[in-house]
Write a structure and sequence with these properties.
mainly alpha
Length: 448
C-alpha cells in the first residue's frame, strides 16, 4: 500500500516515504561517479582532470531542471492540498514544456561558447592547466550538452514523481537509467576504448532513458495524482515555481562556482593531482550529499500539501522528526567518511600512490562537513516546500555563494592546502547559524 500526502507520518512512515527519493538521488549521483571510475582507470590523469574541470558548467545548466522541479513540485503539492487537481496538472504540464524549450536554447548557446569557457577556466589557475586537459574538457562537455535537456527533465521528474505519490516508480526509472550508464560505460570505455567520448555518450544516453520513460509514464493514463495535459504558458505560476526553487538553483550554481574555485586553488597548491584529488572527493561527496538532498526532496511535497491544507500539527511533526533524522544521517556520514576515506580514494587513484595519499588526507578533512551540511540542506528545502522561496534562497545563497566562496579563497592563505579542504567545514558551521536563526524566527508565521 502506498504512502499518501495527507497521512500522519511516524518515523517509519516518513522514512518509507522519503527512501525512494533518497535512492533516486544516490543513483543519479552515480552518473558522473561511474564516468570518473572508468575515465580515471582506463585513460589518463589529464583526461580525468579535464572531465572535472568542465562538469561544473554542465551541472549549472542541469540545475535549471532541478530548480523548476523543486519549486514547481512545491507549488503543485500546495495546489493539490487545496483539492484542485486539474489546476495542479496544468501547472505540472506547463513546467515540463517550458523546461524543454528553455533548456534547448541555453544548451545551444553554451555549446557554441564552451571552448572559450574551458580556456578561461583552465587559464585562471595558471599554466598548470595544459591544452590537453582543456581539449578533453571541451569534448566531454559538448557531448553532454547535446543531452542536457534530457538531464534537466530527469532532474525535474525526480521531484514530481514524489508529488504524484509514485516515488517508487521514480526510483525504478532511476535504477534503469543508472544501470544503462554502467553498462554503456563498460562497453564504450573498457571494450571499445572510446575514452572520455565514451563516458560522455554513455551518460547522455542513460539520462535520455530516464527522461523518456518518465515522459511516457505521465503522458499515458496512469493511477498517479499527475498527468501531462494541454497547458499554456502562464507567467505568474512559472515565476512562483522559479522563486520557490531559486535556492536549489543558486545552491547548484554556487556549488559549481565553488568547484571551479577549488580547482583554481588546487592547481596553485597541488597541481593537476590536486584537481584530480578534488574530483575524487566530489564523487564520494555526491553520494553523501545525495542522501540529504533526497530526503529534502522527499519530504517537500508532504510539507507543501499540509501547508496548503493548513494542517499545522503535521507540519510540526514533520519538522521535528526531520531534524532528528538528519542528525542520525549526519553521524553515519561522518563515521563512514573517516573509516572509508582510503578505500573510496583508491577506487579512483588507479595505483598512483601520491594521488591516493593526497586524496585520502583531503577527504578526511573535507568529510567533517557532513556533520553539518544536512541541516543546512534540510532548512533550505523546508522553506522551499512552504513556498517561501526568499528565505530558502537566502539560506542557500549564504551557505554556498557567500561563505564557501569566502572560505576557499581566504583559508589557504593561512593553512595552505589543508585550508582548502577545511574551508567547506568552516562555511557549514557559519551557515548552520543562519539556518537555525530562520527556523526559530519563522515558527510563528508558518506554525511549525
Amino acid at each position: 500500500m502506498g504512502i499518501h500526502l495527507w497521512e500522519h507520518f511516524s518515523y517509519k512512515k516518513l522514512m518509507k516515504a522519503v527512501l525512494p527519493t533518497i535512492l533516486m538521488m544516490v543513483c543519479t549521483s552515480l552518473y558522473n561517479i561511474v564516468d570518473g571510475v572508468f575515465v580515471s582507470n582506463f585513460t589518463t590523469t589529464e583526461a580525468f582532470a579535464g572531465l572535472n574541470l568542465i562538469v561544473p558548467v554542465t551541472m549549472i545548466i542541469g540545475s535549471l531542471g532541478f530548480m523548476l522541479g523543486t519549486g514547481g513540485s512545491a507549488l503543485t503539492a500546495m495546489t493539490l492540498g487545496k483539492q484542485n487537481k486539474e489546476r495542479a496538472n496544468q501547472i505540472f504540464s506547463m513546467i515540463v514544456y517550458f523546461t524543454v524549450i528553455f533548456g534547448a536554447v541555453v544548451s545551444a548557446v553554451v555549446f557554441v561558447f564552451l571552448e572559450p569557457i574551458a580556456k578561461v577556466l583552465g587559464s585562471i589557475g595558471g599554466e598548470v592547466a595544459s591544452q590537453e586537459m582543456i581539449d578533453y574538457a571541451v569534448v566531454y562537455g559538448r557531448i553532454l550538452l547535446g543531452f542536457e535537456v534530457m538531464f534537466m527533465l530527469q532532474n525535474l521528474f525526480q521531484s514530481f514523481f514524489v508529488v504524484a505519490e509514485k516515488a517508487n516508480v521514480g526510483f525504478i526509472v532511476t535504477i534503469i537509467a543508472g544501470l544503462t550508464n554502467v553498462v554503456l560505460d563498460a562497453l564504450f570505455i573498457a571494450v571499445f576504448k572510446w575514452g572520455i567520448v565514451g563516458a560522455a555518450v554513455a551518460t547522455g544516453i542513460s539520462q535520455t532513458v530516464g527522461a523518456v520513460i518518465a515522459i511516457v509514464y505521465f503522458v499515458r493514463k496512469n493511477s498517479s495524482l499527475l498527468r501531462l495535459t494541454k497547458a499554456r504558458l502562464e507567467f505568474m505560476p512559472l515565476l512562483k515555481a522559479c522563486t520557490n526553487g531559486s535556492s536549489e538553483f543558486l545552491s547548484n550554481i554556487a556549488t559549481s562556482v565553488v568547484s571551479i574555485l577549488f580547482n583554481i586553488q588546487l592547481l596553485k597548491y597541488a597541481g593537476v593531482n590536486g584537481v584530480a584529488a578534488y574530483g575524487i572527493i566530489m564523487y564520494a561527496s555526491f553520494i553523501f550529499n545525495a542522501v540529504f538532498i533526497g530526503y529534502s526532496i522527499g519530504m517537500a511535497p508532504i510539507v507543501g500539501y499540509n501547508f496548503g491544507a493548513r494542517n499545522t500539527n503535521e507540519l510540526k511533526n514533520i519538522r521535528k522528526k526531520s531534524l532528528i533524522i538528519t542528525l542520525i544521517f549526519s553521524i553515519i556520514m561522518v563515521t563512514l567518511t573517516e573509516l572509508l576515506a582510503g578505500v573510496m580514494s583508491s577506487i579512483f587513484s588507479h595505483g598512483d600512490a601520491e594521488l591516493l595519499e593526497l586524496t585520502t588526507h583531503g577527504f578526511r578533512l573535507y568529510g567533517i562537513s557532513f556533520a553539518l551540511c544536512g541541516f543546512n540542506i534540510f532548512t533550505s528545502g523546508f522553506f522551499t516546500a512552504l513556498n517561501d522561496g526568499l528565505v530558502s534562497a537566502i539560506v542557500s545563497f549564504t551557505r554556498t555563494a557567500v561563505l564557501q566562496v569566502a572560505c576557499v579563497l581566504i583559508m589557504p592563505i593561512w593553512f595552505e592546502l589543508d585550508g582548502i579542504w577545511l574551508s567547506v567545514v568552516v562555511a557549514e558551521v557559519l551557515a548552520l547559524c543562519v539556518s537555525f536563526a530562520f527556523l526559530i524566527a519563522k515558527r510563528k508565521k508558518y506554525s511549525y
